[in-house]
Amino acid sequence: MIRAIVTALVLLTGTPAVAQPLIIAHRGASGERPEHTGAAYELAIEQGADVIEPDLVLSKDGVFIDRHENEIGGTTDVGERPEFADRKTTKTIDGVATTGWFTEDFTLAELKTLRAKERLPAFRPGSAAYDGQEAILTFDEVVAIAREASVRTGRTIAVAPELKHPTYFAGIGLPMEDGFVAELERLGLTGADAPIIVQCFEVGPLERLATRIDAPLAQLVSSTGGPADRPDVTYAQMITPQGLKAMAGYADWVAPEMTLVLPRDAEGRTTAPSALVAEAHAAGLKVVIWTLRAENAFLPVERRRGEGLAEHGDMAGYAAAFAEAGVDAMFSDFPALARQGAAEE
Fold first, then answer.
1. Would strands 158-159 and 51-52 be described as parallel, antiparallel, or unpaired?
2. Can you tell me which residues the record assigns to a coiled coil (predicted)?
3. Which of 119, 169, 281, 319 has the most Cβ atoms closer than 10 angstroms to its Cβ?
């Protein structure tokens, strides 16, 4: 119960309540099981994750579905299902032409007939061995997994849903915000002490949610580009001291891409920490970085081990460096390694 208490404190207060950052399982333990599946979430919880992350898109009938993107050709067996062959199409999502199968063209009942598969099989053949075993989850089902695990383990397991492409969905007649607020109200997740962190790369949805719910909100920030709903704004502008102060008016967290905290030089080596963590804390924001992965392809040069890009490097050491830099939480595909690194700092 002590860990449950300190986890709640970190979620609620403006400064870290414990020395170790929260570990957020990025789509579950998605380095070892197909992402966004029950198996990935359960393994993440077993490995000590404090929070599990569902990315949310919508079905044709308006149900919140747990997939990283609304295009599902890369994460399910839909391409192998002849009954859905005619639904393959090309759409423009946030300015990017994308070909495949899209959740908004399927009812929940149809989506439930599909089975999940590993998105990066060349990097994660061990995870790919679990292809075809798990159904697509709804947001309700992910919350149920967290709640059941909280009872079983005696520690609070929070959820960190990310609203994906809300402006796009609104443009096709499937607005997210009203339905999402209704879901949170039904699930009892609207309060300031709710075990949840709501994320989005867009700004407007978070600003509006801040007027409707008290639950913690996180503004996601990439190292390039800007929010899809604010074409005149860049993420670089949003993480200046002035931008962070404005962000704190609607968000509790800033969630930067990890190289914005520990930059890399032209050779791909980590350099000195940026001022972002200190400036965010000064603005009253907590900091959660994304995304720690164990494969050499995703690590800075000095953390790589062996020759192959799919081989695992020193991710735990990299996590320790972020903990030392003062971040309050870390997204990781490998929660056990992230926990190990955070404990070593």
1. parallel
2. none
3. 319
